[in-house]
Amino acid sequence: MPAAPALSAPQKALLKMGLARDIDLALHLPLRYEDETRIVKLRDAREGESVQIEATVTACEIAYRPRRQLVVTVDDGSDTCVLRFFNFYPSQQKALAVGSRIRLRGELKGGFLGWQMAHPTFRPAGGDLPTALTPIYPTVATLPQAYLRKAVLGGLARADLSDTFPPGVTQALRPHLWDLREALAFLHQPAPDVSLATLEDRTHPAWQRLKAEELLAQQLSQLESKRERAALRAPALPAKPDGLHEQLLAALPFQLTAAQRRVGDEIARDLARSVPMHRLLQGDVGSGKTIVAAIAAAVAIDAGWQCALMAPTEILAEQHFRKLIGWLEPLLAPRGLRVAWLTGSQKKKERAEMLALIANGEAALVVGTHAVIQEQVQFKRLALAVIDEQHRFGVAQRLALRAKMTHDEQEPHLLMMSATPIPRTLAMSYYADLDVSTIDELPPGRTPVVTKLIADARRDEVIERIRSQLAQGRQVYWVCPLIEESEALDLTNATATHESLGAALPGVMVGLLHSRMPVPEKRAVMQLFTSGQMGVLVSTTVIEVGVDVPNASLMVIEHAERFGLSQLHQLRGRVGRGAAASACILLFSAGDSGRLGETARSRLKAMAQTSDGFEIARRDLEIRGPGEFLGARQSGAPLLRFADLATDGELLSWAREMAPMMLDRHPQLAERHAGRWFGGKSDYLKA
C-alpha cells in the first residue's frame, strides 16, 4: 500500500486550526471584510479610509532615514501618494519599478507632505473587479489568506448543509431567518451594498441563523449528556436518622444558615438516589461551602463508602484538611476511620502510608490536590467526589477522578464547588447539564468589607493605615501580581515590597509567600500568620482562595488594574471574616499615559460599587465574555463562537425549549445537528 502523500505547510496549518472537515471550513467565518469592488480616486478619498486605487509608479528608492525602507511614489491622475515598506524583498522592489501600473489597497494617512500609505497590498493593475466584499479570515503565519479563501469556498461547496431543523421550526422562530447554505454563502462573500454595521454587530439575518444553529447544537449536546448520565448507576446513599451527619451538626460550634440547610437538603436528596449526582454548589466568598461538603461526606461515609475532596492548590487543600479533621476526625476515630492527606510534595514514606489507608478503606475521607487522581491512588469504595474551585481543573482531570470509581461499574456522585458565582445565562448554556445549588446568604458575624481605590502615588497613606490596624492588634495582607521584575510589565515585585514594608514597619513581623517557595516554607509562613504572630503577609495570588484568618482586617492589592474581576473579589474575600471592620484597598497605577485602560477602569469601578459576588460575576461576564470567564470550560466543551450570551438571550431560550422536543421526536436530526457543529468534541460535556 503506497504511503500517504506528505502534507504541505498550509495543509498542516489547516489541521492545526481544527479545519479538518468540509463543514469546519464552511463554518470558519471572516473576522472582517475589505471592499475591493471599486476603485477610488485620491481626490475623493478621506483621511483614515481604507481605499483601493489604480496608479502609475513615478519614483522608487531605498531610503535610510529613520530606518531602511522602500519609498514609492504613485500618481492616479488626480493626486499622488507615497507608499512606505519597512520590510520588503527584491521581488517587490522590482514589481514597483518606475512606470509600473498597479492596483493597491491600504489605509490613507494625510499629512503636510500629502497622502501616504504604509505597507499597502498591491498587484499589477487591470482585470475584473470582485463583485463581493473580500473576506479576511482568522489564520496563522503559514496559511496565506488566498489559500484559506480557496479552501473555505471548496469546503462550503462540498459540505452537507441540508436543514437539520425540524419541519416548521424556522417559521416559528423567525419568519425572515435565512437557510443555512444561503447564510454561509452570504457571510463568506457579502454583496458590496450590505450594511457593514449589521455584519460587524452580528444582527444580520444570516448571522441570526448561525447563532440559532450553534445554540441549538450546544443545548442538544448538554441535554444528551445529562440524559446519558441519568441512565448510569451510582451507590444510593440515604442519610440515616441520627447518623454521622447529625452527630457532626450537633458537634459544630455554630448554626447553619437557612441557605446552607437548603442546599444541604438538595445534595442529600441527590445522594439518596441511585443516579449519579452532578451538582454545582456555588456561593460567594466565605458563604460556608466547606461545611456543606463535610455534611455530604458524612452521609457517604455513614453508608460505608469513601469520599474524595480535591482542591487546586496545597494551601487551599490544607485549609480544607484542617477544618475537616477538626470536624470529622473525632467522629470517625471511634469507628476506626481516618481523614487522609495527599499532595505532590509529600515525603515518600508518608505518601505510601496514605495510599495504603486509601486502598484498604480505612481512609474514609481523602483530601488533597490533583495528586488524588494519580494512577497509583486506588480507592476501595469511592462514592462521592468533591471538587473545589472546579473551574481551576481541566475536563480531563475531572474525568480521571470519575474513573477512580470501579465498584460494580457504578459512577461516583460528583459535587463541584465554586466561589465564582455563575451568571444566569451561563447556567442556562454552559452549565445546562448541571444541577445548581446556591448559598445566597453569608453566615452571621461576617462584616461588610469597605473597598477603596487609591492611586499608587498615595502609598504612604496606605502604610499609615497599616500601622493603625497593627496598633489595634489586627493583621494585614498585601498582594502583589508578580514574583520578580519583568521588563515587559514594570511591576513592583513581591520581594521588593516585602523588603520596603519591613523597613517601614520596624518591630513588625512581615512575611513573604509566593508560588516558587518550597512547600514546608509556605506552610511555616502561613502558620505564623494564622497564629497571629505575623502582622503583615506579603503574597502573590497563592492566597486567592481558601485562606481563613478572622483577625485579618485589611487587604491591600497592589497594581489592582492587572487583576481579573473575579480574582479581585476572591482576594477581597480573605478579609471581613471576623467581627472587626474590614477594608480592601485597590492600589492602582495608571502608567506612563496617566490613564487606566477601559477594561481595568470597568473592573475597579465594579469592585468599588458592589461586594455581591453574583453582580460581580455578571459584570465579569460582560467585560471578558464567556470563554475567558470559564477558562473555555476548562478546555473541554466547545465554547460558543458566534452567539453572544449578553445579546442572544431570546435565541438561547428558544434553543433550550427546542432541544428536548428535538431529542424526543427527531433524534436523527438532533444527532446530525450536534455532529455538524461539534464533531467528536461533545464527549467533553460529560465531565
From TrEMBL:
<dbReference type="Pfam" id="PF17191">
    <property type="entry name" value="RecG_wedge"/>
</dbReference>
<dbReference type="InterPro" id="IPR012340">
    <property type="entry name" value="NA-bd_OB-fold"/>
</dbReference>
<keyword id="KW-0227">DNA damage</keyword>
<feature type="domain" description="Helicase C-terminal">
    <location>
        <begin position="458"/>
        <end position="622"/>
    </location>
</feature>
<keyword id="KW-0238">DNA-binding</keyword>
<keyword id="KW-0347">Helicase</keyword>
<protein>
    <recommendedName>
        <fullName>ATP-dependent DNA helicase RecG</fullName>
        <ecNumber>5.6.2.4</ecNumber>
    </recommendedName>
</protein>
<dbReference type="InterPro" id="IPR014001">
    <property type="entry name" value="Helicase_ATP-bd"/>
</dbReference>
<dbReference type="GO" id="GO:0006310">
    <property type="term" value="P:DNA recombination"/>
</dbReference>
<keyword id="KW-0378">Hydrolase</keyword>
<dbReference type="GO" id="GO:0003677">
    <property type="term" value="F:DNA binding"/>
</dbReference>
<dbReference type="InterPro" id="IPR004609">
    <property type="entry name" value="ATP-dep_DNA_helicase_RecG"/>
</dbReference>
<dbReference type="Pfam" id="PF00271">
    <property type="entry name" value="Helicase_C"/>
</dbReference>
<keyword id="KW-0413">Isomerase</keyword>
<dbReference type="InterPro" id="IPR011545">
    <property type="entry name" value="DEAD/DEAH_box_helicase_dom"/>
</dbReference>
<dbReference type="Pfam" id="PF00270">
    <property type="entry name" value="DEAD"/>
</dbReference>
<dbReference type="InterPro" id="IPR001650">
    <property type="entry name" value="Helicase_C-like"/>
</dbReference>
<comment type="function">
    <text>Plays a critical role in recombination and DNA repair. Helps process Holliday junction intermediates to mature products by catalyzing branch migration. Has replication fork regression activity, unwinds stalled or blocked replication forks to make a HJ that can be resolved. Has a DNA unwinding activity characteristic of a DNA helicase with 3'-5' polarity.</text>
</comment>
<comment type="similarity">
    <text>Belongs to the helicase family. RecG subfamily.</text>
</comment>
<keyword id="KW-0233">DNA recombination</keyword>
<dbReference type="InterPro" id="IPR033454">
    <property type="entry name" value="RecG_wedge"/>
</dbReference>
<keyword id="KW-0067">ATP-binding</keyword>
<keyword id="KW-0234">DNA repair</keyword>
<feature type="domain" description="Helicase ATP-binding">
    <location>
        <begin position="270"/>
        <end position="439"/>
    </location>
</feature>
<dbReference type="Pfam" id="PF19833">
    <property type="entry name" value="RecG_dom3_C"/>
</dbReference>
<dbReference type="GO" id="GO:0043138">
    <property type="term" value="F:3'-5' DNA helicase activity"/>
</dbReference>
<dbReference type="GO" id="GO:0005524">
    <property type="term" value="F:ATP binding"/>
</dbReference>
<keyword id="KW-0547">Nucleotide-binding</keyword>
<dbReference type="InterPro" id="IPR045562">
    <property type="entry name" value="RecG_dom3_C"/>
</dbReference>
<dbReference type="GO" id="GO:0006281">
    <property type="term" value="P:DNA repair"/>
</dbReference>
<dbReference type="InterPro" id="IPR047112">
    <property type="entry name" value="RecG/Mfd"/>
</dbReference>
<dbReference type="InterPro" id="IPR027417">
    <property type="entry name" value="P-loop_NTPase"/>
</dbReference>
<dbReference type="GO" id="GO:0016787">
    <property type="term" value="F:hydrolase activity"/>
</dbReference>
